Request: fold
Amino acid sequence: MPIPQAELHLHIEGTLEPELAFALAARNGLVLPYADADELRAAYRFEDLQSFLDLYYELMAVLLTQDDFADLADAYFERAASQGVRHAEIFFDPQAHLARGVSMETVVGGLWRALETSEERYGVSAQLIMCFLRDESPESAMATLEAARPHLGKIVGIGLDSAEVGNPPGRFAQVYAAAAKLGLRRVAHAGEEGPPEYITSALDDLGAERIDHGLRCLEDPTLVARLVRDQVPLTLCPLSNVRLRAVQSLEQHPLRRMLEAGLMCTVNSDDPAYFGGYIDDNLEQSRSALDLSDDQVRELARNSFRASFLEHDEEMRARYLAQVEAYVFTSVSGRP
Reply:
């Protein structure tokens, strides 16, 4: 079995495998512009973040009912459990669904049905993080926060995602301040395609407690020193970075250099249906490409639980960390 980990950077809409997309389309009386799952999977060749987002939003059309969202999340949990995931903090994009006429109640209600049973069925505890689309207006983000108020008992935090370039974090300072007053945790995508300054802005203007991606921090030594000093978690997604050409190959990914610099890194899968791998696929391929040591792999797993929002259940976090420490590596594959 893979080493136990927490998944902290996972877009639930990005787990929509082609086969499930076709099944949901058929259930909802929709016709996808692809002949079959193989033709759709062949379309998963992206030039950059925007080319991915275009297809990502197109396929969301099959998600219409609570059953659809519940089935989507349930399929993820089943896969995640086989990949070593013990805890998942799942992003969802309500604005993309509200714009299609799908209500917040439908989205959150459907996802929550799967979250309620994920630990019992798959041994995976889970929390929801509601993301704002940074290429939409701050006013739209604030309206989305208001629409989520009746459901905040099911939402642990907020995030910021979608097209990064030209959409600096500081635009959303007011909605993040409002969310903080509501007791919501705060994370934000920064430093994937955007410059290191976006990471600094996410910390200073948004009060972000974790940075999603953050790989471009290495361009700013002062920022690196700050991130190391404060042990700000960075939720890296190596296969995503390669597929979207943020880095040219896994061998060139900065993960190992970031660990050696003392940064608090974690490995995650981002949008695994589109990027060719779930969390352990990311870890194992990175391990091989970057020649990561057993200690570094254990550090990544340990970091994932320490960076999680499990403060409400320190006993659970301690149990997961104990599983990481008890994990036995082999010299060949890193698995017992």
